[in-house]
Amino acid sequence: MSAKIYVVGLGPGDRKDMTLRCLDALEESEVIIGYSKYIELIKQYYGHKKLVTSPMKKEVDRCIETINTALSDGGKTVALISSGDSGIYGMAGVLLETADKMKFEGEIEIIPGVTSLCASASILGAPVVHDFAVISLSDLLTPLSIIEKRLRLAAEGDFVIGIYNPKSKKRTEYVDMAVDIILKHRSGKTPVGIVRNACREDETCTICTLDTLKEQHIDMFSTIIIGNSQSYESLGKIITPRGYKFD
Amino acid sequence: MSAKIYVVGLGPGDRKDMTLRCLDALEESEVIIGYSKYIELIKQYYGHKKLVTSPMKKEVDRCIETINTALSDGGKTVALISSGDSGIYGMAGVLLETADKMKFEGEIEIIPGVTSLCASASILGAPVVHDFAVISLSDLLTPLSIIEKRLRLAAEGDFVIGIYNPKSKKRTEYVDMAVDIILKHRSGKTPVGIVRNACREDETCTICTLDTLKEQHIDMFSTIIIGNSQSYESLGKIITPRGYKFD
After folding, report:
1. Angle at B95 between CA B92 and CA B98, to 5 degrees
2. Which residue of chain B is at minimal alpha-carbon distance from A12?
3. B215 vs chain A: nearest CA distance in angstroms?
4. Do A112 and B122 touch (CB under 8 A)?
């Protein structure tokens, strides 16, 4: 019996931003399971394997299916994929929780990837570089009051702020809320970057300011990076100085 | 004239955790420049290229050398390497700042990588998964008062906290300071992970609690991840629940 589960972070999406360990794990796996959009990203390379798509908001079911598949036929190697890094709002947590509850005794290997903050930052220039906070605006699993509190404290601490899941079809007003909270602690001139589909063919990138962020096109495929008090824009890039001295 | 600079995040260090884009850039580069420890990591694969090592605390000089090398002999392709992701406490910022000041007009491509938070988290289980803050304890470029303030606000906001550069040979007492600040807002039983040389051959991993963090062996190659109020330890892994419901 050798049941093995790889929890794989694909990175932003393009094959070139996947790590060798990610590619080796996909190659070794007999079955690859993931949300349909992520299966779509890798289908062209792994069409010869069993690919199982699973709907959004069914993350626990997806983990149960992953574990049951790994346990089937005397043991299989299965990859459970997320985009970005599997441990940042990804599947690593819920898979470990499910494995605990199901008393799964096979092997689990979590494979890190390039998270969207890093991918988006690389396109915007160097907006992070210093201390930062990452906050998801999705209130599916987190009370709104906690999201508001974290936005306030991150703004007060002058952290660079990365915002994941800024909008969904039903949830459109939280970016405006975030702007209002952050503006209490940070200048309206603070540079802000919005990257949609980072490092993919249809990538778009916009640089604006906190004052104009509400007017921008933002959707569920966007990541937002808000500079700290030292960040500036130069030649179409956002730079947050680390503090090096130039003569 | 075609001067090109790749600012490359190598990931945690092992070749298997590098992305294809990182490997392609290293292959294409005629010269690879970096802090000696990072050149050491890739030397075995790129010994046939010109490898230039540069000391720590000479980051601006390293960027000037990178730019001058790219501009030499009618234009060269040069890789400036960091470990982890080049945009998170990496070389992307200082390179762009230097390029601005030197009015460098060649091409610059920033290649993201797996940052230490993600690499360390994958070894510890799933300690991040929810909103998080990353703080460097190095006061070389940041006033201590700002570091203290950010620790306090991140603790108050119940962010998972990633700590980079927790100690150096000269700076040994800041982890204790961080523990004292965070304990004002978080239980002493909060699980904490310490990963040294994540994803390398000599990787070590320790799980303790906030109450026992001061007693642990920590050095400049360690990354610390402090759970939030919901994090727990199970079967030798740290799990921070995202909030999924199990029947």
Report:
1. 150
2. B112
3. 25
4. yes
Neighbours of A53 (CB within 10 A): 15
pLDDT at A170: 85
B89 and A149 in contact by Cβ < 8 A? no
What is the spatial distance between Cα A56 and Cα A83, in angstroms, rounded to a whole number?
Answer: 13
Asked if B122 lies within 8 A of A242 by C-beta distance, the reply is no
Q: Which residue of A has its CA nearest to B156?
A: A153
Q: Which residues of B touch A118 (CB under 8 A)?
A: 9, 85, 87-88, 112-113, 115
The model's pTM is 0.97
What integer pLDDT is reported at residue B38 of this predicted model? 92
Strand extents, DSSP E, A23-152: 31-35, 50-54, 77-82, 107-111, 125-126, 132-136
Q: Is A246–B97 a contact, with Cβ atoms under 8 angstroms apart?
A: yes
Note the ipTM here.
Answer: 0.96
User: Tens of pLDDT along A136-178?
Assistant: 999 989 999 999 999 999 999 999 999 999 998 888 899 999 9
Which chain A residues are Cβ-neighbours of B244 within 8 angstroms? 59-60, 94, 97, 141
Question: Shortest CA distance to B87 belongs to which of A123, A216, A193?
Answer: A123
Terminal alpha carbon distance of chain B: 64
Q: Could you state, in chain order, the average pLDDT of each consecutive group of 10 residues for chain B (247 residues)? A: 93 96 97 94 93 90 97 97 95 96 96 98 98 96 96 98 93 94 98 96 96 96 97 95 86
